[in-house]
Amino acid sequence: MTLALPHIGALPAGARNSIADVPGVTVGHCTLAEGACQTGVTVVRPHGGNLFTDKVPAAATVLNGFGKSVGLVQVEELGVLETPIALSNTFAVGALAQAQIRQAIAANPEIGRAWPTVNALVFECNDGYLNDIQAMAVQEAHYMQACAAAGVDFAQGAVGAGRGMSSFGLKGGIGSASRQEGEYHVGALVLANFGTMPAFTVAGTRIGGLLAERLQAYAQAQVEAGPEKGSIIMILATDAPLDARQLRRLSLRAGAGLARTGSVFGHGSGDIALAFSTAYTVPQQADAPMPALAMLHETRLDALFHAAADSVEQAILHALWQADTVHGRDGNQRVALRALMPELPQWLQRQAPAPTN
């Protein structure tokens, strides 16, 4: 049985400690793992209905823009999502955008005719170290498989879009966590593909140096030197009634959780956070009633900001802790954190300061 990592922060986790603790949110994967093909697709669905006709409010923050995502311009302008959120590798963006458009047209045949076109939303990280990214293996069918698999219980680690990802010189991938504040939840899902090993920090303790020594002994591998060149996509969901402006403020706090793990949002890193609310939907049609509810008061946002930072930090740690070692393209491999330091949970407990009276 895999031991749990230390709980980050004072707020309690939701029942699943995942983004699916936000009611209505589901996640699905399609994993491609054969030889040099080590990649996949992960889909986040804000609700189970028709997202084009019943959009959810959303906003994004670009901490560092070294990325090739699709759909962020319209999200910034209109403040809504109208497709599921798709995650994969950099060269899969076009195929997934087309898959989302076809899916939306199938459910809404008037898209692009009597109705406006649809805004596909795809995020990416470069998994080319482990995956033969030039093969462009991800296709429309893989997106549809991930959508069909979406549920409240889903795997983390080297699965879906996270299959070929690397973090801190180790195996990265998909991670999720949640925090609860009163009646509201904040859940995070990350695609972790960033970080340099010397900077890796867990629950306030820098462990990169120790891991570097162990990696050299375990895999006879030299620790990679140089600046941070990876990326991370951070998705935040909440059931708190927030508008797009407030959601942008919430998305910015994902950066606090990211920084705690040892990232400085390096020059070559694509670090993007998107937040959405499931508290209400925005209709596509002008004759449908707009939602009538009070937004959360600004002075109550601080607790959600803490929840966002803590859940993102925890989700990043879950991505590494749940991942398995993966061998991929040209003999490249990424060793799992659990393989290098299986005693990490107990080790961190010993590092914790003694309580004061």
Write a structural description.
The chain is globular. It is an alpha+beta fold and 357 residues long. Strands 3, 4, 9, 10, 13, 14 and 15 form a 7-stranded mixed sheet that branches. A 4-stranded mixed sheet has the order 1-2-5-6. Strands 7-8 form a two-stranded antiparallel sheet. The model has no long low-confidence stretch (mean pLDDT 94). The protein contains 9 helices and 17 strands. Helix content is 26%, strand content 25%. It has a single domain (19-284, 294-349), classed as L-amino peptidase D-ALA esterase/amidase (4-Layer Sandwich), CATH 3.60.70.12. This is P1 family peptidase. Pfam families: Peptidase_S58. It comes from Cupriavidus basilensis.
Q: Tags for this entry?
A:
P1 family peptidase, alpha+beta, single chain, 4-stranded mixed sheet, ArgJ-like_dom_sf, Peptidase_S58_DmpA, 357 residues
Helix content: 25-40%
Low-confidence sequence ranges: none
Rg value = 20 Å
Main sheet characteristics: 7 strands, mixed
State the total count of DSSP E strands: 17
CATH topology: L-amino peptidase D-ALA esterase/amidase
Q: What does the average pLDDT come to?
A: 94
Query: β content, as a range?
Result: 25-35%
CATH superfamily: L-amino peptidase D-ALA esterase/amidase
Number of separate helices: 9
CATH top level is Alpha Beta
The string of secondary-structure elements, in order, is EEEHEEHEHEEEEEEHEHHEEHEEHH
Net shape: globular
How widely separated are the two ends?
Answer: 35 Å
Return the domain count. 1
CATH architecture type: 4-Layer Sandwich
